[in-house]
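Predict the 3D structure for this chain.
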Amino acid sequence: MSLSLPEVKSFFRRPLRLRYHLITVFLVTMTPLFLFAVYMIYRSVEEERATFRRGAIERTRAIMTAVDSELKSSITTLEALATSRELDGDDLRLFYDEAMRVFKSQRDWTTINVADASGQQLMNLLRPFGSELPLVAEPDKVGIASKTQRTVIGNLVLGTTTKQLDFAIRTPVVRNGQTKYVISGVVKPTVIGELLAKQQLPRDWVLAVMDANHRIVTRTLDPERTVGEIAAQGLRAALPESAEGWGRGRSKEEKDVYRAYTRSPFSGWSVSMNISAQVVDAPLHGPLLSVALLGLGLLSLGIALALLLSSRTAASIESLSSSVVDLGLGKAAANHVPSRIAEVEHLRDAFLTARRLIQERSDERDQFEREVWRQASLLELTHDAVFVREFPHGPIIYWNRGAEALYGYPRAGAMGHSPHTLLKTFHPRGMDFVESELAEKGEWSGELIHTTRDGRKICSDSRHVLAVQADGKRIVLETNRDISVRKREEKTRQVQSAVNGILAESPALIEATPKLLRVLCELGEWDVAGMWEMDRTANELACVEVWHPASVPVPDFEADTRPRRFAPGTSLVGRVLESREPEWIADVTRDRNFLRAASARNDGIHAGFCFPIKLGEEVLGAIECFSREIRPPDVAFVQTLSAIGGQLGQFIQRKRAEEALELLNRILSKDAEPVA
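Done. Predicted structure below.
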């Protein structure tokens, strides 16, 4: 069938569908960029995978070395104990006391036991001496230690005496070439967990330590649940094949991961590190400059070709744009839009229909918003802080009077800001955890720390409810009630109770000092604490003890504090000696009278507080506390510790009286003569 010339012309003049125009423009513009991107992504991914592999294996190697060092530290202690002369005889009673003294110095040990070659326990510090005892949990390890006369590192097992998961280090007691006993130090797996906690890995990275039986000793993700479980199947299969390696597999949470692992030839234990496969496989950046320049050139070429091919559609689209503007202004659209694209004609009709639907939706939205704000007016009557924000981490869209009163920010100053940023919201597990719980369950409640406009930190009883608006946007209604007073009272009771307990069980202040300083740091949320004793002869306060957590190293400040002595009026301690009242410095690095400002600045110390230990008006000593944060004075805390200072003074007076009475009794007993 043949077509006439007019029919052919009519065929080619028919409007073409928009898809053909867009497909042509897309192919001409994007093909060069696509090919270039594929090449760069492939090269970058291969390079980054190699970097990941090397770095991960080196990291597990270093952690394995740290684990072995921790085990060797326990081995050294146990082997030193095995040389005790009390083990030369057959009576273990005296050795029981010596072992108890060593055990008290090992905070990560559960117990020390002594067994014979069969694994029968002869002594265990968890039971009184002479008690009937079961076999050890791993009698085969005892047999190996006895036979080889070498220290053996056990695996994670449920202890027959401790009734909890732990592992033992077993050292033979050799006398005259024969194994007499096997001493076991039973160690908590938490000591290994503390090593892993210091690594500060990204959230997608999971560290685990396994014993020689491939049981998990500790793990950075969900350690309480996974301790004692068998390692993932892929890791168990890989460990016997090589001492270290890298590969892809499945984690215990059934997630795709890349795994680096190292097995120790010393202990037989292993360390593995799981990295999310999404992180390793994600496209990574290559040389940015070359990508930008070449990509820009290819993009310019594609845009130029696209503009050339799409020139015939420009007039139709511009005409349609004019029609859309008319619709937006509420004007009637033109009866005809000249076009060579069939979809343009359909779009014109669709715009007219959309205008009608938009008007209907607008009326519905206005009615909905009137109802919402009617309900919101009721929220102004509550004393609780109530605000509404967009989800997730979105800006504030409603802020009631209770929120203004609690946080100090007026409504105009709060609207449009993220509440997490404005209030410096803190949760121990991070706000991402709160948002994920909210997304999963639709609501969340708990305690949050907020910072007010004047810098005060308050503890809030918070409740979040997730709702979906008519337009599909998700919002969060958040209510907060200030419970700072209640929390402060609870902390005060905790501090007072802890101090009472320490003083009740301590024979002298020197023995109670480290415990007191630790309680003040932990419950008072301070980083460093020090005890000062009054030297009446020199009328000075001298430092007797400095305590800080192991996680807060302050080498310069500690070295600058221990040899110090302060006269009245000099530095923070001297002010307390002179005034006999507590003193608070919000930032010691800016205080000209604080003589340790340089070392405090080096170790990041800011806030300082000191209170006297008094007996009546006599100053017997002082205790000072320091924080790495700048902290304004806390009146309630000052009052609590002032009372504790008086309590310590009475404690010292009582102990002095007891010592004097004891001395008098000894003198009387020595000088007394028998009566005929």
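The chain has a mean pLDDT of 80.
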